[in-house]
Amino acid sequence: MTIESVVWDEWYPVAIAEDVTPCKVYKTRLLGHSIEYACDADGRVTAWHGNAERTPCKALTRYHTHWVSLGDPPERFFALPEFDEPDRRTLGGGSMTVHVSGLRAIENFLDMAHFPYVHDGFLGAEPYTDVLPYDVSIEPPGEIFARNCRFFQPRGASTSNDGGYDTDYIYRVTRPYVALLYKSSPHHPGRMDVIGLFVQPLTEEWCRAHTLLLYLDETTPDSGLRLFQQTIFGQDLMLLSNEIPKKLPLDSRFEIPVRADAMSMAYRRWLDQRGVRYGTYRELEAQAMPAPAGQTLTRAVA
Amino acid sequence: MSEALNSAWFPVAGAHDLAERHIFAGELHNVELALWRDDDGCVNAWDNRCCHRGARLTLGANTGHRVRCQYHGWQYRSGDGQCIVLPAASQTPPPTSVCAHTFAAVERNDLVWVNLNLPAGHPACPPQGDWLIAEPGAGRTQRALQSFVLHAGAATALAGVQRYAAFDARLSGDPSVALRSSPRAVHLSWNEDGQALQLFFLLQPARTDKTLVHAVLEAPADAVALGPWPARHQAAMKRLRHRLIDEGRVSDVPLSTADDAYVPPPPQPKVRQRGSERLLKARVTRVTEVAQDIRSFELEPEDQGDIGALADFIPGAHIDVLTPAGLLRQYSIVSAPGEINAGSARGVRGVTIAVKREPDSRGGSASMHGQIREGAIVEVSRPKNHFRLANSGGALFLAAGIGVTPLLSMAGQMAATGRLHALHYFSRGAAHVAFRERLDALQDVHLHLGLSPEATLAQIQSILATMDPQMDIYVCGPRPFLDAIVGAAQALGLGADRVHFELFSNTISHQNDKPFKVRLARSGVELNVPVGQSLSDVLSEHGIAVETSCEQGVCGTCMVTVLEGTPEHRDVYLSEDEKRAGHCMQACVSRSASEMLVLDL
Amino acid sequence: MITLYDYELSGNCYKVRLFLEILKIPYVKHPVEFYPGFEHKSDALLALNPLGQLPILDDAGFVMRDAQAILSYLAQRYAPGSHWYPVLDARRLGETNMWLAFANELTATSSAARLQQLFEFELDADKARRGAYRLFRILDEHLWLSERQPDGGWLCTGGQPTIADLACFPYVMLAPEGGISLLDFPALRRWTDRVKRIAGFTVMAGIFPASPSRQQAPTEHGAITM
Questions:
Q1: Total domain count for chain A?
Q2: Which residues of chain A make contact with B258, given a CB cutoff of 8 A?
Q3: Distance from CA of B400 to the nearest CA of C (A)
Q4: pLDDT number for residue B443
Q5: pTM
Q6: Is residue A220 located within the same domain as residue A88?
């Protein structure tokens, strides 16, 4: 299949830097293609197709992560000023493979309403289930932001154990398969911890989720921070594996949103407007679901 | 029923497979099924997919009368599959579009049968001759044995099952065994130890490469013969399966799985009436004078198929009742969910409503008082859960007159779960105070009898000024009572979102709405959009179809183009720029700032 | 005080955590980063368990490996004479050990498929999945008959769960993370509900609680659980 440029000409993560042993060749897949990559003794990454010709691909390291592109990606990377803050810890959360479209993994990352059910006792709990209205906007250079998000969390971080408190969140989508969240730091009131979800689309229905943690925490060891993150992701994993269809439907008559889903609706709409097809469920076209009446904006029906 | 629809009934499980508080996972024609039985025995067969984000319902929980999805906790009720609890927006009744995709299901021959082409509630019919099975004869019983998976298409599975007798020690070599076969079933009959026995094998096409073989044993009703059959049948099927695998006809492991490709359920006939609009027959089991001019009516479902229809609701709910005068009226439920009426002969769960005889009644309440006696059958809706308790915090209940009815049910819930609550009941006099026994069961009840409007207002102000700050306020009573409370709350600086009141109208508060006109540019038709009705509702009433989905202004489906006028946007779909430009709007929630809107319809 | 060398996402560690919660035995977790750190292969951990596996239990200096063995020790030490490990009845003891051994087969298949799928461990996942499927079928057929006995419903006879049920439970529940669906195993799925309803049951990431049974008290929160 021909993959649309907005997806093909883009950088994708293949590994968190600390997880790659120098001078070892790793095999993986990207957008359905076999690729291989390796780091030399100085940590420089190179990548190539897993075919006989071993055609080279573009590769670079940014934000403690190795990125590969099969096409012609933009020069400019997304901004992440927190990465350069000297008092921050930078570490990976451990990468995991999930049998679902990477777009669904991103959407799950942007959602709070599931906290009391999937992350019960950690990021949420009954009866504090209402999602208060928050603000969604598109900000330059074409990124989606959700601000003023707030949720009561019994244990929102690995070191919280004082009965829970309201956590503030900001969500940000920079690329179809790249999202970040910012959440109130328990140690540094007024500042936020950053978690990046960098998703590698192995195929349309398989993805590998790489997590980057940029934390303000002087005391917890790396393994402690990772353990908490893995617990949270492990809880999401079973849900993501059980979402059907595996690809993300963009038609809101097929999957019905509510007000709490404003950010995920903005994300689906943003994908649609950019012409993202890879990883989306398009079989509804074949069943001839007619487009809603009275539409004037360009809006491809999934 | 048409031939095509009729022939689409298939067995999908043994009756025993639907265990209590369990969700059974099934598959038919590559469509995944979630099958479950509610606490009253009613069987539900649904597409195994929550319509929110596609999570498998089999990952969720059967809580007795509902399925709760594991992803966001959405709860779908038994019967019509309507979502009635949506935790992210706990105060708003979920949109009616949020509903499980139901299939007609029936229990017959100790099996569960499903028809993917028909919705739940559709009358069932006996399986066609193709299945070779009928109801058991007099003095005989049918019992489903273990269902077996064969990883092969239906034709191969059928050929395999026809060889069954050879794999059972007593049947093999028994010349009296008679075999009949059809494309979907095999029937064995024989005599054993002086008893006539029959085995029916029914083949369910789970997937194109996977067939489920259901087996039903028919024997004399008192038969001890049944005892060893579960193990005997399992042993025979295991041997048969093993041989078929050895012969290469059937695979040992799955050839494909549901994860390989999603198959949506087939479309259903559009004439389907929404479950929440259908009225069901209810028997009046008791009528009681609970106060002057106030009668309570205890109701329970009359038909077996509706047995659980009134068992589950959220306190504060009401039902629609078709009164003898022919008018549809709303009456709040005073009882707690799941109560078995004292007057019930069958021990069926029902509801108690209260009706006040209004002097200027157009006939609704007068006809209820005048004509409904014990034993009468009335038509009622399933409970409608529009008025709800907030999830957390305490509750201050303010009731006037008959308005005490929904608040009593809510207060009962607060008491049962040990939550902070208080009830203030304003009434004309002691003779008008209803449900004294229910009041006695509550924590903190205050009666205010015979107060003038001025005294009532003063009392309200005093109550609100001294109320526990952890409480929300729940009000039910006549309009002036409500207005007095809203005004007093505002004056005391209490947030408007802490005052909840029962409005017998659909969902979103219409407090600041203005009516407006729309002109449809293409036809020239002009319509009024009154307060309390959405633009999409008005359009739909006049035959102009605008498709809706979320009904909350989130999804963008109902977008219409605005040619003139200034829309008042209440959605979260459009961007700020789009809203400012005012060229389009969401018809399900948005209204108009100008007197008239011209739409491109 | 018991110390458990534990990894949150490990089903084998969860078996021990689950039993400790059910028996209400206090313990301290010593987290070991199985992935991506491979800490279980570090010198410090190899000194405790030369097989380089988790869980490891240290009960006041008495150190044990192997989840099944740990369960039998905990049962006999802290709940002697209970239904969890019926040492006095030879047949039931035999049954329990039979199904404890079966749990190891599940680790070799279902858990292996999961490790390959989640963490990209180098394992033959297809072979592991086929193996798990066959084992689940055996469990399902056994439980289908067990359900029909008056003292049935569990892996062993006697009408009550044993540590064998706890030992087999995690890699049945987590099987979908290795690409194995439980769709073909209705009796097995019903058994997982029964295990979830054991008093003191606790979850791990990827496993969710069952609703209360009709006999159990409904949970307390207000309108939500009505």
A1: 2
A2: 244
A3: 23
A4: 78
A5: 0.91
A6: yes
